[in-house]
Amino acid sequence: MKSVRVGICGLGTVGGGTFNVLMRNADEIARRAGRPIVIEQVAMRRENPDCDTTGVKTTNDVFEVAHNPDVDVLVELIGGYEVARELVLTAIENGKHVVTANKALIAVHGNEIFQAAHEKGVIVAFEAAVAGGIPVIKSLREGLGANRIEWLAGIINGTGNYILTHMRDEGRAFEDVLAEAQALGYAEADPTFDVEGIDAAHKLTILASIAYGVPLQFDKAYTEGISRITFDDVEQADNLGYVIKHLGISKRTEAGFELRVHPALVPKECLLANVSGVKNAIEVMGDAVGPTIYYGAGAGAEPTASAVVADLLDVARDISTEHRYRVPYLAFSGIGESDNDLPILPMEEISTAYYLRLLAVDRPGVLARVATILSEQGISIEAIIQKEAIEGELVPIILLTHRTREKHMNEVIRQLESLADIAGSVTRIRVETLDEDA
Ligand SMILES: NC(=O)C1=CN([C@@H]2O[C@H](COP(=O)(O)OP(=O)(O)OC[C@H]3O[C@@H](n4cnc5c(N)ncnc54)[C@H](O)[C@@H]3O)[C@@H](O)[C@H]2O)C=CC1
Ligand SMILES: N[C@@H](CC=O)C(=O)O
Ligand code: NA
């Protein structure tokens, strides 16, 4: 049986992991694929000390791989938007299949890439792009194919979860834990993508398209990171019975789809509250199957390589299947079309409960004024904690509200921040009781 010849572009964390897994498990992989999967060429800027490339054809020009007639599948692991886009489109133009771990590329340029691949009849596989080694794309696209997906929610950035876990468990500083996640190879080249929620929004965009059969719409995702979470918020959440997690949430409603990434208070007994460190987990609600959950390593060299190589196995098996009989790139057939033309909802229209932390001047009547502002917007309070005042200092007030529309909460915060009794800005963290919503 003819081998499948692979060209790896980028020999960093994921490229190095992919190289090593393909080499180490070559026999096992060949038996599973029904044919050998061999590394034909590697494009890299520098050697990876974890990889022995002796005897492998190398180049420092990734486009050489895209033009190499002996390469059947180009594996894009350089990251970033523009060069990766050009590289992938060149490979497709040359009739090569593509495997990528690049969620930024798929979320932003995916519609164009899938259209080009469709015209050429080639495969573009991207399991590693969402939640690293967890086979969530395959599960959602194929395993849950019978279902109308109602919602999905998850921890889909390993670096962010690693930071929140170590801040909470060890009281360590944000910057210190971030540096550790970078050293472990978890973070993006620009770690603001991790801590400001951009990476999670890329992944959520991809998941939502596969779940609902809508085009990729990264520009409509609401994105908020974890960089403003303080240790005090972590402690207060704990006192109230919650854990702060950075979530990606997408729900189907009658008016449209929610697509939002932000920190959230999650009840301690929820499965997602117990996902620690670099682990990711995604909960998916299907109308037939009910809730399902997918859990595992969301980042790191070999966990991510596991997904890249699984995609290569699919390519090896599907290469001889006629294009129209393959599983569609985003699960639904009809590239760039959707029979579900509901919009992505603006954030003002979403509905959830809230945690608020305000710093108040210790004066009589402050709490009453705060409560009036909330009640005027039709928002009821579930819990209130006022810490003891220390003479001359501001008093932190913590509030948990019942569910309301984001636009009403925006108005509350605007009014609270304009009160003379309230200092600085109000901290708002959304509260998500996912299992209850099910
Ligand atoms: N690190 C992780 O745990 C995960 C990363 N990813 C994605 O995988 C991709 C790669 O990420 P990492 O391996 O972490 O990054 P990395 O920075 O460790 O590796 C990228 C490698 O590509 C090389 N490179 C970049 N441009 C190049 C060019 N024009 N020519 C030749 N080599 C070039 C760099 O020198 C570097 O060695 C990204 O899209 C990332 O978002 C996805 C899942 C997990
Ligand atoms: N930087 C990402 C890598 C995997 O996608 C993360 O931390 O999750
Ligand atoms: Na995955």
Automatic annotation (TrEMBL):
Pathway assigned in UniProt: Amino-acid biosynthesis; L-methionine biosynthesis via de novo pathway; L-homoserine from L-aspartate: step 3/3; Amino-acid biosynthesis; L-threonine biosynthesis; L-threonine from L-aspartate: step 3/5
Annotated ACT domain residues: 355-431
Annotated binding of L-homoserine, by residue: 188
Residues bound to NADPH: 103
EC number, UniProt record: 1.1.1.3
Main enzyme class: oxidoreductase
Sites where the protein binds NADP(+): 9-16
Keywords: Amino-acid biosynthesis, Methionine biosynthesis, NADP, Oxidoreductase, Threonine biosynthesis
Short name of any one Pfam family annotated for the protein: ACT
Superkingdom to which the source organism belongs: Bacteria
Record-level GO BP terms: methionine biosynthetic process; threonine biosynthetic process
GO MF annotation: an example: NADP binding
Catalyzed chemical reaction(s): L-homoserine + NAD(+) = L-aspartate 4-semialdehyde + NADH + H(+)
Gene3D superfamilies the UniProt entry points to: 3.30.70.260, Dihydrodipicolinate Reductase, domain 2 (3.30.360.10), NAD(P)-binding Rossmann-like Domain (3.40.50.720)
Active site positions: 203
InterPro entries given in the database record: ACT-like_dom_sf, ACT_dom, Asp/hSer_DH_NAD-bd, HDH, HDH_cat, HDH_CS, NAD(P)-bd_dom_sf
Homology family: Belongs to the homoserine dehydrogenase family.
Protein name: Homoserine dehydrogenase
Gene source species: Onishia taeanensis
